Amino acid sequence: MAKTNPLDFIQQVRSEAAKVTWPTRKETMITTAMVFVMVVVASIFFLVVDQVLGWGVRSVLLGFGG
Questions:
Q1: Percent of the chain residues topping a pLDDT of 90
Q2: What is the pLDDT of residue 66?
Q3: Dihedral over Cα of 4, 7, 10, 14: its sign
Q4: The whole model's pTM is what?
Q5: What is the dihedral of CA 37, 41, 47, 50, to 10 degrees?
Q6: Could you tell me the CA-to-CA distances from 32 to 28, 29, 35, 46, 59 in Å, in that order?
Q7: Mean pLDDT, to the nearest integer, of 27-33?
Q8: Ramachandran region, residue 63 (left: φ > 0; alpha: ψ -120 to 50; beta: rest)
Q9: CA 65/CA 23 separation, integer angstroms
């Protein structure tokens, strides 16, 4: 593998970094909000599933009569 001159490497890195399309502030805020919404939805889903499974296990172990 050919070695690259450190100055050439830095120039290549700067060239590649210039090609990156950075998100706008609005895009970042929308994406962040979507992540928070999905975290809340997933948390509620797993809470409900946990409660249902817990009820099922208690029902089987203690009997449906209580």
A1: 76
A2: 52
A3: negative
A4: 0.65
A5: -140
A6: 6, 5, 5, 21, 41
A7: 98
A8: left
A9: 58
